[in-house]
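Chapter summary example: a protein plus zinc ion.
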Amino acid sequence: MRAAVLAEVGKPLSIKNVPVPEIANDEVLVETKFCGICGTDLHIVEGKGYVPKLPHILGHEPSGVVAKVGSSVKTLKPGDRVVPYLFITCGTCWYCRNGRDSMCANLKGIIGVLVNGAFAQYFKAPARNLFLLPENVPFDVGALMADAVITSVHAVYDRSNVKSATSAAVIGAGGVGQIIIQLLKDLGVRVIAVSRSESKLAVAKSIGADEAWKAGEPNIGARSREFAPDGIDVVFDCVGSDESMKDSLAMVKRCGRIVMVGEEDARFPADSTEIAQHELEIVGSRNGSRSNMQMGLQLLSLGVIKPVISDVFELEDVNKALDRVRRGASGRVVLKVG
Ligand SMILES: [Zn+2]
Ligand SMILES: [Zn+2]
């Protein structure tokens, strides 16, 4: 099969012919249709954060069709349209038993990140990691379920204080930020989108953000207090940089919450006095759980989540696609594989 292979950190991927993955009894072989690309792929290529064994096949936002099932698999059959849950978990640790699948203490892999993924004609997954893609959700959109959609659902419904929030800010209006905005508007929350990119701010407005503000402006705290009397109830930081974290702190109200979604190596720029005296809630959010998969697929099917796909590339042009992400696309970048 054709696959885009990372042979050396920091080097472009190369298109190679490699063997089709062999499946165990409880695994499923999937013929890839589309695969999304995000900043995590850039991190892997650059050797930051995740370190898979090389050579490695990236691709952690795929959709596809079941090609073959292992002998013990009863829940899926060839032809089924599927998307994966990425974390290959033990199912028995404290985290797995408490619905915190992405925190599994005995993680056996993350599809496309720590084990081979879907920048290839076929990828494999344990049967219990595959979810049926609703018929009315096309493959390009369905591909975004495994990362952009689940991450947004988890951040809003599990990790934020959205039940008591009337105002929110979403810093970083890329793939994840745009879906968070759609979820918040569906819940009736007033939303400010914050970004360095004029084109992302324009997209944010077009999908319902009440305001679209440039990141890093000195008066962002004062403007937030004009938007909502005491400041913002919940700030989603989808960037994780020095600048975005400073903006988060300037915008959030006392007793408000900052949900950290973006992952960089920047340190949080608040002193203990500010956190204590303002009773700030600063929580992390990573991908999501199997139940978030179910919910995200329903919200895609209902049209509540409508991911914005800005760029489609062929598998052969994977390096151009990575470069598009690097330079900042206005929506999600996807590879058309099959
Ligand atoms: Zn991703
Ligand atoms: Zn576990």
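Key point: The domain at 2-147+288-336 is CATH 3.90.180.10 (Quinone Oxidoreductase; Chain A, domain 1).
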